[in-house]
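Replying to the earlier thread about multi-chain prediction with a worked example.

Input:
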Amino acid sequence: MYRKLAISSIVLNLILFAIIGYAIHLKGGIPYVMDYVSAKVSDNEFDDYYKTRLSIFKESEEKDAIFLGDSLTDYNEWAESFPEVNIGNQGIGDDTTSGVLYRLKETTNLKPSKIFIMIGINDLINGVSRDDILKNYTSIIEEIKKDTPNTEVYIQSLLPTNSDLTYKDVNKEDILWLNDNLRKLASESGYTYIDLYSLFVDGNDELNEKWTIDGIHLNGPGYGVWEEALGRIRGA
Amino acid sequence: MYRKLAISSIVLNLILFAIIGYAIHLKGGIPYVMDYVSAKVSDNEFDDYYKTRLSIFKESEEKDAIFLGDSLTDYNEWAESFPEVNIGNQGIGDDTTSGVLYRLKETTNLKPSKIFIMIGINDLINGVSRDDILKNYTSIIEEIKKDTPNTEVYIQSLLPTNSDLTYKDVNKEDILWLNDNLRKLASESGYTYIDLYSLFVDGNDELNEKWTIDGIHLNGPGYGVWEEALGRIRGA
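Result:
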């Protein structure tokens, strides 16, 4: 009886090894595993995309307005949408409040007249607590005020996400709580809060399907709504 | 003896199951597996980033110059670098020659005076043969000539990659062969070939470490070199 059991179990082991081997192969083989292991070891390091984008920002000349954030900022071509303004897109896909804090000098060094910031949704996706997010956000605002006091800062609300379209788990209450506190933070700092949330939300606190493909990012018409909202502020 | 073997083997079974389970958990759990399976089923579909970027391009107004390509085009902020030109960045990370072919109407519809194209490295990474890449490229060029005959097309060479810095396997010979044939294609179509390859290559047919972080993409100074090369063309 043990003989049969041993044989079936060994066969199962071979199958499982094959699955793991194939999965590693799909990912790029042994070099992938090495990269993965070394990435885990130096946990504080940023990924290659972050570093590449940052090295592009370092070459940037002076800007009037900087869009600072994560993929929601990164995906769009702001300088094309507002050709009359000298805009810098400093969005980095997957970035977080601590990522922005780390690279903030590349923004404040340019002494822009305006900074439009949207950051935090990846913190929530990564499981960072809303208190820690708010703490980081407060540090960002303090550092901007200290380093470039004449810059007008526009704190943009977090956007809703759509849980049917994305498997990335975000707590709706956390988004609402953060937006509430970002509004307070803006008011306490003498900066402007921009409520984009209510332009994109449906009746169930979800990102309206009309404005998204993947449940987190905006589609083309969605960016049109965002840009129109910014145009109204500029006009005011 | 079989008893011991059976027990050790079953323990190993459990460990391997745990590894696979943990790997799936890291990736986002069961929804990830479902997405992965459904992605494999509908192989012809483009990913969400492609669809999102395409929906942004669809909102685009007229452009003088369009930069058409993959992540190498996408990562940079071309409109910021050449503020005096009305530029459209139509780069989509991970895109291929067939991806460009599929979305080419969004480029030609805008009737730009110039198109700067760089595409093909992801085809090579994905294992598409160089003959098929050249075939797709030829179709791209034919379609542009048919749909917007007054547009000047700049066919940019593929860049070298650095095999020490990336685990993505690219055959150096294929890059050289393609560049050779892209030069011929440009000349046969009456378009301009731009050799960027030799600006970035080191003595061993590798992307010089000076210009890259991850072995495939350019860093900030690297984009400076590319932009300078384009500036020379414009000046000519």
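The first strand of chain B starts at residue 65 and ends at 69.

Feel free to reuse this layout for your own posts.
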